[in-house]
Every structure is written in C-alpha cells, then in structure tokens.
Amino acid sequence: MPATDMDQVVTLCKNRGFIYQSAEIYGGFRSTYDYGPLGVQLLRNVKDAWWRSMVQLRDDVVGLDAAILGPPAVWKASGHLDTFTDPLVDCRSCKERWRADHLPEPDPKDAKVHCPNCGSTDLTDARAFNLMFKTHAGPVEDDSTVAYLRPETAQGMFINFKNVIQTTRKKPPFGIAQVGKSFRNEITPGNFVFRTREFEQMELEFFVPPPDSKQWFEYWVAERFAWYVGLGIPEAMLRIRPHEQEELSHYSAGTSDVEFMFPWGWGELEGIAQRTDFDLTAHAKASGESLDWFDQASGERYVPYVVEPAAGATRSMMAFIIAALDTDEVGGEQRTVLRIHPRLAPYKAAVLPLSKKDTLTPTAREVLGLLQPHVMCDYDETQSIGRRYRRQDEIGTPWCVTVDFETLEDRAVTVRDRDATTQVRVPIDGLVAHIMGNLAAY
Ligand code: GAP
Q1: 3-class secondary-structure state, position 263
Q2: pTM of the complete model
Q3: How far apart are CA 16 and CA 359, in angstroms?
Q4: Is 270 in the pocket of ligand 1 (CB under 6 A)?
Q5: 369 CA distance to ligand 1 centroid (A)?
Q6: CA of 196 to the centre of ligand 1 (A)
Q7: From the CB of 268, is ligand 1 less than 6 Å away?
Q8: Residue-wise pLDDT tens digits, 67-76
Q9: At what angle do helices 431-440 and 361-371 cross, to 10 degrees?
C-alpha cells in the first residue's frame, strides 16, 4: 500500500536524511528544501534513470547543459517576459497576497470577495505578477545588466539548436535533452517539494518534420507513461490528462500531462507539449539567425516542430517515495519498508557485520571494499541485526549483506532481500556478480 499520509512522507524524509527544510537553524526559508545524504543520492538516481532512457539508450537524442542565467532578449522572444504571469491580489488590511484565481467566490451576504486570512473586503484589483527571478549580472544594478534565472530549461535548447545541428550532424527527427535547476517565484508554493521556487527539471525538445508532430506527440506520451511504470509506480496511480484549451501555456498547441495520485489528489508529474515552431520561429525573428532546417532529400526548407516531454525531477522523486512507502509484518513485527525500484534506491547494498567484535571487522571492511567500486553501499555495525535490517528497509536498501562468524570459516556472506526478506548464502568471491546480476534483472 503506497503512502496516503503526507505527514508520514515528510517525517521519513526528514528523519532519514532525504529532504531537510532549508536554513532550518535560522527558522527555515519558506518552501525551500535541501536534499540530505539519501535525498541527493535518490534524486541523482532519478535523473540518471531519465538520462539513461532519454539519451544513453537512443541514437536520436543528444545532451546539453546550458546556463541558468540568461539575458532579457531570450525571455522576451520566448514570451516569458510578457506572459509568464499569475494574477495577484493584495489584502490592504492584513497585507497577505493571493492568486486571484485562488480567492473564494463572493460571499452571497454582501456579494463581495473576502480575504481568506482576515476576512477583509479591502482587496486591490488583480495585477499581473511575473514569475521569473530577476537579478543583475555584474556590479552595476541598472537596466543594462538585468538578467533572469531560467524558469524552464527548454530555452537553452532552442537557442542552441543551430550549434547542435552544426556540431552533431543530427537531423529531424532528433532531440536535445537537459537536466537542471529552474526557478519560479511561485505565489503559492506548497505540498512539500511538489511546488517550490527552486526545483529541477528533466526536459527533452524533440525536433520533427511538421507533418509528423502528431505521431511523435502520441509516441512520447506513451513512452513517458511507461517510464514511470517501469520504475515501479503502479499504473493505477498514474493517468494521462489532456489539457483544456484555456489551460494551455502560451507556446502550446496541445498538452497532455502524466499525473500521479498524490495523497491530496491527482497532480502533474510531467507535461508533454506540442510547441509547434513557436520557439524556433520566435528566436529566429528576434536574433536574426535562421533556425530552420534544409532537408536535402526533399529539397525543402522548414522550421521543425517541437514535441516536448517536460518532467520535474524533484517532484517525481517525491512521487517515487510516496508510491514505494509501505508497511507490512515480518516475524510478528510491523515494519516500514520503502519498496523503491533498486535502480533508484540510494544504497544498493548495506554491509552489516553481525557483531561489532574486532574479529569480524576486517572481513566486513574487505566485503565493503569489494562492492564500493560498483554500487553505493552503506556500512552499519551499531545495534542489533534486526534493528539494522529495519533501518535499511525504511531507506529502501534492496540487499543487506551480513558478515557473521561462519564467514571467517567458509568465506561466504548472507544476502537478504528487502521485499521478500529471504536470505541466501553467497561466496565472497561471487558477491559482486550476485549483486550486479540482481540489479541488472530490474
Ligand atoms: N518547458 C515546459 C515546462 O517547463 P511545466 O509544466 O511548467 O513545463 C514541467 O514544467 C515540469 O516541471 C512539471 O510537470 C513539474 O513536474 C515541474 N515543475 C514545474 N514547476 C515546478 C515547481 N514550482 N516546483 C517543482 N516542480 C515544478
């Protein structure tokens, strides 16, 4: 049973070192989070699994790592300076700020909208608030030095389209993939790391001949849905939801979201958008550089259409935790177990000497040293073996390797499986092959 209680998820994340409140010793920095020793590992594994599927296993996608800071010209051309806004209303009485579309309907008693915080009706008119973070590049803070932190990784790929086709000899259909931080001055951040002001995205811009864009759109919707399922999210917790016309972003001619059943209801994990030639045409016009493609086979010149699967890394990491968090009974005792896909698990193995006695330590350290070049490992020699198993179950370690007194005689260790709790005896010499074989089976 996946987690249905957000408090349980937040508590596990904090207590086990997945996610901490940022600047906690200063009282916390609202809606900003730090990824702890296990969180950084899990997040990295989510991003690596995405990169493996989207870049490594394909010959029609190349990677990119573009700058986070960008000049206003990029964001003017992309439409973000003019349209990436939320309508905002201020309460003059308590000074709280609200998204206009999140305010309650007018109260039938006086036909007025009331501030949800203090009940006042003294509210300003709605005004557009741009979600981009603005800063200055260099020591002088004037209009000539204005720069923006990117609100999506996508634009870095559009403005490098020409560089990439010239340097890689790729031709449509092909894609550019990027993983990295994005920043949005969200008015209503919340639901833990679901909506934050600093987050990570995993985006693909797939450039196709315009007549083929519908077919590629359908292909990517199916591929991306299958990616989450392949990494252990039950199909029943996922759905595809096509956008209504009025919720489409300014660049999109059609979008479908992959949604996940969060404890509070369905929420977006990823949007797959038909961006048409909106971005390449806009940047070509604004920069004066031609961003089209000459197809030698047909003798045709055209601006490729773009199909964009855009996922959140931090948001999907939380979804993977929620889907994997489970409780069951082992030996008459309740246990919490994170049944996370082994490819995503922060540690693949934990080496546990049965006792802290000096006699076992050298062999346990030898076993750890054998595994470490291949997989991330934990090493734990404190407390009873039962408690150590529970701790590893809770953080999702798929295999516990126990070094006991027999090991000194037979040079074999016990490997315990997290989900089945079954144990097998494996010779130390074959341990790396055993763990790697287990991992490859997923
Ligand atoms: N380039 C298109 C684009 O950025 P988006 O739907 O705004 O599309 C893509 O963002 C994904 O990024 C979302 O599906 C979500 O997973 C993630 N995301 C967007 N805003 C976020 C936020 N404030 N906090 C965490 N993740 C966010």
Answers
A1: coil
A2: 0.94
A3: 30
A4: yes
A5: 40
A6: 10
A7: yes
A8: 999 999 999 9
A9: 40
